[in-house]
Amino acid sequence: MSSRPSSINNLTTNDTLITLLYAANILLPIFIAGTSTALSTWVIPMILTNPSSKSAIYQFNTTVARGGRFLQPLSRFLAASFAASRLLVSQHPDQSVAAHWKYWAFGTVVLVSNAPYEIIAVFPVNDRVEALGKRNRDGDGDLSEIERKELVALLRSWQKWNMGRVALVFLAGVIALWTTFDTLASK
Prior knowledge:
By secondary structure, the chain is mainly alpha-helical. It has one domain (6-186): Four Helix Bundle (Hemerythrin (Met), subunit A), CATH 1.20.120. It has helices at 6-12, 15-48, 53-90, 95-98, 101-112, 114-136, 145-186. InterPro entries: Anthrone_oxy.
C-alpha cells in the first residue's frame, strides 16, 4: 500500500486529468505565441502607419491593455498547468510516465522566466509610450518631430522585445509536445 494520501493517488493515476493538462500545455502555447506574434508582425506595423501620433499611442496602449487582460492570465494559467503536470507526473505510479517530471519542471521554469523578462525588457517600453501620451494629452494633439521619432523607435523596440516573449512560450510548447510524444512512446 502506498504511503501517499488516497487523494494524491487518485490524482496521479487519473490519466484523464493528466491528458487534459498535456493538451492544454500543447494548445495554449500555440494560441499565446500565435497571438503575440500577430501583435509584433501585424498590429504594431499597422499602428506605425497611423499619421496621428496621439492616435498611434492610443492604439498601442489599448493593444497593451487587452494583452494584459487576456494573454497575461492565459500565460499564468499555462505556467500553473505545467507546474501541475510536473507534480502529477512526478507522483505517477508508472515510472515511464513519472520519469518525465523533469521536462515539465523545465517548461515551468521557462514560462516563469517570462515575468522578469517582461519587467526588464517590455514594460519599460510600455511605460515610456504611455508617458509620451500623457505629456501630449493636453497639447495640440500630436507629438513633435523628435517625439514622433522616439515613438516609432519605441514601437519597433516593442516589436523586437515582444518576440522574446513569444520565443519563451514557443519553447514551452515544444517542450510540451516533445514530452507528450516521448511519454506516449515510452508506455
